[in-house]
Amino acid sequence: MQDIILIGSGGCMRELFWQIQELNKEVPSWNVLGYVDKQPDMGAVTVGKQSCPYLGDDDFLLAKAEDTNVMMCVGEPWLRQKIVKKLLLNPYIIFPPICLDSTKTCDDLVMGQGCIVSMDCRISTNVRLGDFVFLNTGAKICHDGVVGSYTTLGPDVTLAGNVTAGESCCLGLGAKVIQGITIGKNVTVGAGAVVVRNLPDGLTAAGVPAKQI
To answer: What are phi and psi of 59, to 5 degrees?
Structure first.
């Protein structure tokens, strides 16, 4: 197993720590050394029967002088991007793309650094993910999809075929996007929304069908 350090201490981190435990039961993959958070000495976080010790704040990682695998366990695109920008100042920090337990992905999937594909996700053929894309539990991307860097797909989000989502978007729980749609950058789509028209940069849309709010 490879050693890895988690970033964050909230619900996203605890979910992913559990998913790593489940993955390791099937294929021993990641040995979690602990977690890093900006808050001082928050103590160990226990998930199931395993504890994840607190290691320090961002400076703990910035001081690393050997290759160190790190997993960005932060769901909000803007915050993920802010933290990554800081940590990339240290060339020894490595953000491997990670597929967790019970995922199914086509062999031609292309993922950038730091991508996380959570439990029960499905990704079809000719799909490209930018850097630090986060697919929460059960998200699905059909054929020929493109997802920009730092975008988050919430639990059970579905992108039909030929959908493009720009950078730093956030698609809420259970949102659906019909085939051929383009979503711009920095777009928020509300939970349960159904996107049937292209969405330009920088707006928030919700409802069935999704409309700007």
So the answer is: -65, -25
Q: Phi/psi of residue 183, each to 5°?
A: -110, 130
What does the pLDDT look like over 110-142, one tens digit per residue? 999 999 999 999 999 999 999 999 999 999 999
Checking DSSP bridges between strand 116-117 and strand 98-99, what pairing results, if any?
A: parallel
- Give every CB contact of residue 2 below 8 A, 6+ residues apart in sequence: 29, 30, 31, 69, 96
Sequence-separated contacts (24+) of 107-110 with Cβ below 8 Å: none
Q: Could you give the maximum distance between any two Cα atoms of the chain, in Å?
A: 51
For the chain, the 3-state helix, strand and coil shares in percent, each to the nearest 5, are 15, 30, 55
pLDDT tens readout for residues 159-201: 999 999 999 999 999 999 999 999 999 999 999 999 999 999 9
Cβ neighbours around 211 below 10 Å, total = 15
User: Which CATH architecture describes the domain 2-96?
Assistant: 3-Layer(aba) Sandwich (3.40)
98-202: CATH, from 3.40.50.740, 3.40.50.261, 3.30.420.40, 2.160.10.10 = 2.160.10.10
* Burial of residue 5 (number of CB atoms within 10 Å: 0-12, 13-18, 19+): buried
pTM: 0.93
Residue 119 to residues 44, 51, 99, 106, Cα–Cα distance (Å): 24, 20, 8, 15
